[in-house]
Amino acid sequence: MVSRSMSNVFLKPYLIPLPSKFLFPNTLKPSLALTLKTTFFIPHFSTTPLSYGPSLRKGTIPSHSQSQSSQNQNDAVLREEAFTRVFLLAALRVPSAECSALEGRLRGHLLNWPRVRNIARVPGDDLDPSLAPLLPQPINGDGEFENEEERTLVSVQRRIHGKADGDGEVLSPVLYRDKLARTFNSRGFVKFRNLAKISRPNRNKKRKKMKEAMEVEEGRRVGQNGFAVVEVVEEEEEDSVGMRRLLGEEFASSKWRGSTRLLLLDERYAGRSVEELPEAIKAVLKEYAEKSTMLTLELVRCKLTLFYDYWQMTEVLETLLPAGMIIPSAFETVGHIAHLNLRDEHLPYKRLIAKVVLDKNRPKIGTVVNKIDSIQNEYRTMQLEVLAGNHSLVTTVVENGIRFQVDLATVYWSSRLGTERQRLLSGFTRTDVVCDVFSGVGPLAISAARIVKRVFANDLNPYAVEYLERNSVLNKLEKKIKVFNMDGRRFIKSLYASDISQSITQVVMNLPSEAAEFLDAFRGIYKNRPKDGEYTFPMIHVYGFSKARDPEFDFHERIRIALVEVAVKVDVRRVRLVAPGKWMLCASFILPKSVAFANSTVDT
Prior knowledge:
Blueprint: E1 4-6, E2 21-23, H1 63-71, E3 85-95, H2 96-105, E4 119-121, H3 148-160, H4 173-187, H5 193-198, H6 205-214, E5 228-235, H7 238-247, E6 260-264, H8 279-291, E7 298-306, H9 313-320, E8 332-334, E9 337-340, H10 350-360, E10 367-373, E11 383-389, E12 394-399, E13 402-407, H11 418-426, E14 433-436, H12 445-449, E15 454-458, H13 462-474, E16 481-484, H14 488-496, E17 506-509, E18 539-546, H15 551-563, E19 571-579, E20 582-590, H16 593-596
Parallel strand pairs: 9-10, 14-15, 14-17, 15-16, 17-18
Antiparallel strand pairs: 1-5, 2-5, 3-6, 3-7, 4-6, 5-7, 8-9, 10-11, 12-13, 18-20, 19-20
């Protein structure tokens, strides 16, 4: 029997032993633990066949994670340790100089998991082979050496790295300059102004600080963004004998010189010996052995540990939520706020869902909210409940290169209408004058001000008007926007009662729940003026909802009824499906002359 045991591979650059932990470079950042007042949930697993790749239903849970989870099942916190999974893999340890060539030859047989590189790197294992013989071994733990010759070699090694200021040797000018620069930067001797000129900037200072922040106590992963860790599980003789049979008796896996890398083999080859590897891998290894003068290859067993930060949001929620429940995978993003629309079945798990959404979308997302009621008030504001993160609902949104400050507690904003607003803007010209009847905080009005000649923006909500003015100044467009705070019907009548009416070419009415009912305000706007004059009849863009079988026809009929005019040529298009069977539509038409010169308006 071959005995397996966990061991540390001691590499000795600069006389410091390092453990055999190999980190993957990645782009994710470990999330901060959040304590939530919710019940602790035990992950469940289905019995469906497992596919290729990592999964929370595959691998093993470390013993310490199992014990911690069992001891804290009644705590009001989500235990991230329960999502740690360990996978046993096979890997080829090769010299770093040959790693790239071998990776290309073995690409089809290497690990192909998302967000996990198939090359594991040893931190600190990049020592120049020519310097390795100069580094002696201390004979005890106190740093004492066997003779004076070894002590001299240590002094040489220290001078190489600029640390020879305690053994009586004079530093070279370059090392002396570096020493002064480090002293100046760390102690802040501002009176030595010339030191700032000769000091070289440390480009990796920020990276080193982040790395040192992750250098923590024993038992945690090390590195800048460690969501995966590889540990070598060494076997005694079996793999070494297999390599000798394959490559020749001169093979010696234990004599490593210089830096090395691990090529992680596909999960199908976990637990296999050298003789059981595919012939394609054997052929590449034999070819490498024939060309190389120093045969340094080793088949090792590895433990790949994936932590909570590795798993995607949907994978975590699928494990935590009851089987058969729809996974809430989509949400609207407004600045740093994630806006959820949870179903009734999700409400018992709302804080659990919010924590996972927050963890998996940091640092972009800082607050998670849920809409607890439909929009029913006249200001179109939503009733929101903060589920996770900070409780500030004031955020900044960037759309079409323009910044908007928004307070979701007092105003309305929908990022999902960004594409529709861009479509409208593409139809505006430099000679247009736009009238935005329900402007809100100005997503359309301010964007249009960069294109058109003039914008008249109105909203009934005083908080929205305040943010509209603030955003106009923020984007330096306040001179092209005239702001009003009144009812939409009164706004339309007051504009067309003045001389401004002759210049208005575009009217936007984006209040889908009620906009069509405000169209009666256009009846008789020119009734007191002579009909033989030259007038500008605006293009009106009105939005609405429809649940009818034929939503275009239904919305068209409502427009005819509001205008009390049958002969209205309307172009109706679907914007988006807001709910099952409920469409948001946009109708565009030129105001008919018969409506503008009507003898009377409809009573409201």
